[in-house]
Design brief:
Elements: H1 3-9, H2 19-31, H3 35-45, H4 51-83, E1 90-92, H5 93-99, E2 113-116, H6 122-131, E3 134-136, H7 141-150, E4 157-159, E5 165-169, E6 188-193, E7 197-202, H8 204-216, H9 224-241, H10 245-256, H11 259-273, H12 290-303, H13 314-331, H14 334-361
């Protein structure tokens, strides 16, 4: 088991690490975007660690805190832009963790803000956000059509002055995914946030379902360990006040037609982190077919490890390859996937060739 994983499970081990182990741990944590989370665990568990290590963890945590504060300000701007036009939106993922004050938001690095709106409101949302300097990032005509026709979100928006990125979703799964749920069936909570106002987030169960769906439809797992750690912290937090939360989560996922994604998330949070699953039989989390279950166990247990050279065994590489294709096959059927991948491969090759030709034509300056 990777050193980072061991200390995430038992932060008390941090007090016994030597300098070489700290070097390895920091490298693994940096590759996994979990340095700030380590500091949060150190403070929460009151673990005594050497100052040379504490300095690194504290610096990462301060950076994450600045991002968290910036994300809150961005939410206030978005709320002002859309609420004034009577457009309803729901915060997703990291922004939702922040406004709900969930433990997994502390020390967590954020790359963008995600919101969910009704598909019928997409054009209106884009228009109003443009008045507040949110402009579409540059994409070619093919990618533009791909987003608009098949995906569950529009091309990312970037703020012209602040540079922050906003992803606007109209569902939590692409239109081509057979499990795409009905937007109207999601449950929402209204949360009042200081200096922001009232914003809407998914209910606790639906928030966990979206986290599970997002993770287990991925085709790349560079930050998979962070994401399954998020899910572990969510389950632990919600079970503190509701011992039957996991069962309610599974029941809700079944109702929405998303059971298998949540089953995978609960199963591997438990197998990787020892996440408690009170009042739920572990057998419920088994795959329908034994051979499929064995393959899933191989892939996910090996992929949920730091994306660092010290952990990249042949098992990691094979798991990453298998899950890459699984993610693509979930995203769209073969009749659409094969032409899409062939087109993207040709476009990448064309761009690389064009770049090489341009570089050859450059005249060196003395």
């Amino acid at each position: 088991m990777a050193l980072l994983l061991r200390v995430l499970i038992n932060p008390g081990q941090l007090a016994r690490l030597n300098i070489n182990q700290w070097q390895l741990l920091l490298a693994q944590a940096k590759a996994s975007r979990l340095v700030g989370r380590l500091y949060y665990l150190v403070v929460r568990e009151r673990v005594e660690i050497p100052e040379y290590a504490a300095w690194h963890l504290r610096s990462a945590y301060k950076l994450a805190e600045r991002q968290r504060q910036q994300a809150t300000r961005e939410v206030a701007e978005i709320n002002q832009a859309l609420a004034s036009q009577d457009v309803s939106f729901t915060l997703l993922k990291g922004a939702a963790y922040i406004v709900k004050g969930l433990p997994c938001c502390f020390g967590r690095i954020f790359s963008d803000i995600d919101i969910l709106v009704a598909r019928s409101e997409i054009e209106k949302v884009e228009r109003y956000l443009r008045f507040y300097d949110w402009v579409q990032t540059k994409v070619d005509d093919y990618d533009e059509q791909y987003y608009r026709t098949w995906m569950h979100e529009i091309p990312p928006l970037r703020h012209a002055k602040r540079g922050t990125v906003l992803d606007v979703h109209h569902n939590i799964l692409p239109l081509t995914n057979k499990d795409m749920p009905d937007f109207s069936r999601f449950k929402m909570d209204a949360v009042s946030v200081a200096n922001v106002g009232e914003v809407q987030v998914l209910s606790n169960t639906d928030l966990c379902i979206h986290t599970a769906v997002h993770l287990f439809t991925e085709s790349e797992f560079h930050h998979g360990l962070r994401d399954i750690s998020d899910f572990d912290m969510l389950l632990r937090h919600f079970q503190e006040n509701d011992a039957d939360f996991v069962q309610a989560l599974l029941d809700r996922a079944l109702f929405l037609g998303l059971f298998d994604y949540v089953r995978l998330a609960v199963r591997y949070a438990h197998l990787v982190f020892g996440t408690p699953i009170a009042n739920v039989e572990f057998a419920v989390l088994q795959a329908k077919y034994p051979l499929l279950g064995m393959l899933q166990d191989f892939c996910y247990i090996n992929i949920f490890t730091p994306n660092h050279a010290s952990c990249r065994t042949w098992r990691y590489g094979l798991s990453a390859w298998l899950l890459y294709w699984r993610g693509h096959l979930l995203r769209m059927p073969l009749r659409l996937l094969v032409p899409h991948l062939l087109r993207k491969t040709w476009m990448h090759a064309r761009d690389a060739l064009t770049k090489d030709e341009t570089a050859q034509l450059e005249i060196p300056r003395n």
